[in-house]
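Hi V.,

Quick status before I head out on leave. The structure for the redesign project is tokenized and pasted below; the design run finished overnight.
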């Protein structure tokens, strides 16, 4: 059912958000160095301050899908998912101390250049192609999903949504480069925060106070954090949220090119590490607010569930339905929509810029020599092209059925195997190109099989009611199926998928590397030992001590950690 609640002030706020984002892009196009060098366009001249980088790290993957999905998750399954944020906290020192120093010390524009230095050109190409496919598919969904959801509950036309958001994002990220992306992320994150706060405040007022949200949620079984089961088929437990959360965090913040590129926009390693550390509390605040908003909506609709009463057609529509149905003050719906689309803008703009860097350095740069004068123009052309590809695929997504869930699944399934490849490169000297290529290919095949194979058991939601609806509702009886009737791999929790892929690559690539003694890059170059700069600080220190008499020709990555 469509609820058209948009008025003049709502459109003014929406238009203001888009104009402000464009203005930031125009400003950085014609100020400072005017994006004349690739260093400025892709890496903001490596002189950004900590705050915009920290916020951008959060905004890059806090998409509209996250806002809609996490609030629905807490409404239907309870607040246990919030524990994953503590796993992110444990993952932060691992990423900042063991992974980041290597990438920052090398000062390479593309993260995948590291793989060629460590292993060889084939794994670099395979990994960068995997990343490109992953991000193109994911971002077209980021653009499409909120548009279709918001159209169904607010009357906001999906075609206009896709065109406006897609074109605005493409324009400002193409014109202003990394600086525009980072500063628009600040604006858009503020709008996301305001949108979520407004939902929490309004739901608290409706149920009689902020504490009432949690009292009602506890009565409905939404505050149960007691699942310590080691059964991998359990949807959410302390074990899979902590272990799976750490692996997921590292796959995003330690080795994903979109994040590593942002972490190189500051001047020193210390500032880069500080940016990563500060991004965690920012992410925690947004994530907790999203979880509480889901509980607040449950407290309001616990006796007349919108999905059971056929007011909406999908669980992800809960958050916008609540805004359209309950937050009727002029301008608030527009503020919420601006926050939802800001989440999409921040994710898409980050990806346009990151994919432009990968295209220039991992594809074009491999086959031909580019004059430095033309590099910024090629980067801008690539960023614009990717923005238009996202637009085209967003329109096609309407006709591809399950592509939404498919894209989200691919996003998670690819991260673990790629993390395994980088981890072997950073923490071992025996892993070789043949081993990691076979490990990555087989690991992704396994995780995608686990994620897409079927038929699958549907997790049982926590109970809701329609007893309080003001009209008669016909509810279909709930069919509870025995999960043991399904193939075991298809029953494993999605929180274990990345961990499974990560461990698979570590084991398979290690076995293949130890059996198939393939030449390492340093052996091909006539050197008898690896460059310590390519390894994580603990291993780099060991190698430096072991080969110190050989006087390595390049500076040890350990020295990078002392840069102030």
């Amino acid at each position: 059912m469509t609820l058209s609640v948009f008025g003049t002030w709502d459109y003014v706020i929406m238009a203001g958000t888009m104009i402000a984002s464009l203005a930031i892009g125009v400003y950085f196009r014609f100020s400072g160095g005017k994006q004349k060098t690739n260093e400025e366009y892709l890496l903001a001249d490596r002189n950004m301050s900590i705050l915009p980088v920290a916020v951008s790290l959060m905004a890059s993957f806090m998409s509209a899908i996250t806002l809609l999905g996490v609030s629905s998750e807490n409404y239907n399954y309870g607040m246990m998912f919030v524990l994953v944020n503590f796993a992110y906290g444990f993952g932060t020192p691992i990423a900042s101390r063991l992974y980041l120093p290597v990438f920052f010390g090398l000062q390479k524009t593309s993260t995948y250049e590291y793989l060629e230095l460590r292993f060889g050109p084939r794994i670099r190409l395979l990994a960068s192609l995997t990343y490109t496919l992953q991000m193109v598919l994911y971002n077209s969904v980021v653009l499409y999903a909120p548009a279709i959801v918001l159209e169904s509950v607010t009357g906001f036309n999906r075609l206009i949504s896709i065109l406006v958001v897609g074109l605005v994002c493409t324009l400002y990220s193409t014109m202003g480069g990394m600086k525009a992306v980072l500063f628009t992320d600040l604006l858009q994150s503020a709008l996301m925060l305001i949108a979520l706060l407004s939902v929490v405040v309004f739901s608290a007022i409706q149920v009689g106070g902020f504490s009432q949200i949690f009292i009602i949620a506890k009565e409905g079984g939404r505050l149960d954090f007691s699942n310590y089961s080691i059964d991998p088929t359990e949807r959410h437990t302390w074990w899979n949220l902590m272990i799976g959360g750490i692996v997921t965090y590292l796959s995003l913040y330690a080795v994903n090119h979109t994040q590593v590129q942002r972490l190189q926009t500051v001047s020193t390693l210390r500032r880069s590490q500080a940016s990563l550390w500060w991004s965690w509390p920012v992410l925690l605040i947004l994530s907790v607010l999203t979880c509480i908003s889901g509980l607040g909506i449950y407290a309001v609709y616990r006796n007349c569930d919108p999905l059971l009463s056929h007011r909406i057609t999908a669980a992800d529509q809960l958050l916008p339905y609540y805004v359209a149905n309950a937050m009727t003050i002029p301008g608030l719906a527009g503020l919420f929509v601006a926050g939802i689309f800001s989440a999409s803008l921040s994710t898409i703009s980050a990806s346009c810029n990151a994919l432009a860097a990968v295209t220039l350095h991992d594809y074009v740069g491999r086959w031909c020599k580019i004059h430095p004068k033309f590099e910024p123009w090629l980067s801008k052309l690539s960023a614009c092209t990717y923005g238009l590809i996202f637009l085209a695929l967003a329109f096609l997504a309407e006709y591809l059925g399950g592509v939404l869930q498919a894209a989200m699944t691919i996003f998670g399934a690819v991260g673990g195997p790629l993390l395994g490849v980088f981890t072997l490169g950073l923490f071992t000297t025996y892993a070789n190109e043949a081993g990691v290529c076979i490990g990555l290919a087989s690991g992704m095949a396994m995780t995608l099989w686990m994620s897409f194979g079927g038929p699958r058991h549907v997790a049982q939601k926590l109970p809701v009611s329609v007893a309080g609806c003001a009209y008669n509702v016909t509810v279909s009886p709930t069919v509870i199926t025995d999960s043991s009737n399904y193939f075991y791999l298809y029953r494993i929790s999605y929180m274990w998928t990345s961990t499974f892929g990560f461990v698979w690559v570590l084991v398979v690539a290690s076995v293949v590397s130890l059996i198939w003694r393939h030449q390492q890059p340093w052996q091909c170059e006539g050197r008898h030992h690896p460059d310590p700069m390519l390894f994580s600080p603990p291993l780099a220190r060991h190698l430096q001590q072991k080969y110190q008499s050989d006087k390595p020709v390049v500076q040890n990555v350990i020295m990078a950690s002392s840069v102030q």
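Above is the designed sequence. The radius of gyration is 24 Å.

G. will cover questions while I'm gone.

Best,
W.
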